[in-house]
Amino acid sequence: YDAGDFISTGAVVASLDKEMLEIQVQSAQVQIDGYNQDVKRYNILVKADAIQGVQLEKAELALRSAKLQKQQLQEQIRKATIAAPFSGIVTQKYVEVGTVVGPGVPLLQLTDISRLKLTVNIPESEVQKFKTGNSLQVSVDVLPEKVFTGKVIMIGSKGDAAHNFPVQILIDNSAGLPIKAGMYGMVSQAATDEKEVI
Length: 198
Prior knowledge:
The protein has helices spanning 19-47, 53-78, and strands at 6-7, 12-15, 81-83, 88-93, 108-111, 115-123, 135-140, 143-155, 164-172, 184-189, 192-197. The longest helix has 29 residues, at 19-47. Strands 6-9-8-7-10-11 form a 6-stranded antiparallel sheet, with no helix packed on it. Strands 1-4-5 form a 3-stranded antiparallel sheet, with no helix packed on it. The mean pLDDT is 87. It is elongated and about 90 Å long. It is of the alpha+beta class. Helix 1 (19-47) runs antiparallel to helix 2.
C-alpha cells in the first residue's frame, strides 16, 4: 500500500518473513513424534518393570515441552501477518518491502476520515452553553457553502492558562469524504463562533 490508498478492516497490511519459523515448527513436530514414540515404549517397559518410572516421566515432560514450543512458534507465525484494525486511508508509509523491522516499529499510518473530531477551545464564559450530545453546525474553510452537523462528545474538565476549555465535536464526513484531517473548521451555536483544526 502507498499513501492515499484505502484499506478495509482486516485487509493484510504487511506479512513478515515466516520461512524460518515454519521450518522450526516442522522441527518441533519431529521432536513431538519422537517423544510420543518414547512415551509409548516407556509405558510398556514400566508396566513390565523393565525400567524405572522416572524415565517415563522425563519423556512425558519432554513431550509437553516440545508441544509448548510448537504452540509458541505457531503463535509467532500467526502474528507475522498484520491486518488493518479499521478501514481508512494510508496517510504515511514508514517501511518498504524487504525492510527489517522489530517489535514496536510502525509500518504505516492509517487514518479513518469517515468520522472526524473537531476540538475547539471555548472561553469559560461560554462553555456552559455546550452540553454533551448537543448537535451543532460545523463549516470547513475550504467548503464554505457546505454545512455539516456535529455532535458534542466531550467537554474538558480543565481549562488552559487563558481559561479556555476544550470541547470535542464528532462530525460524520459526507460521501466522497470532502473533509480531511487537519483542515480548519468553525462551529456555530447561539452566540458562539469558534474556529479550530479538525
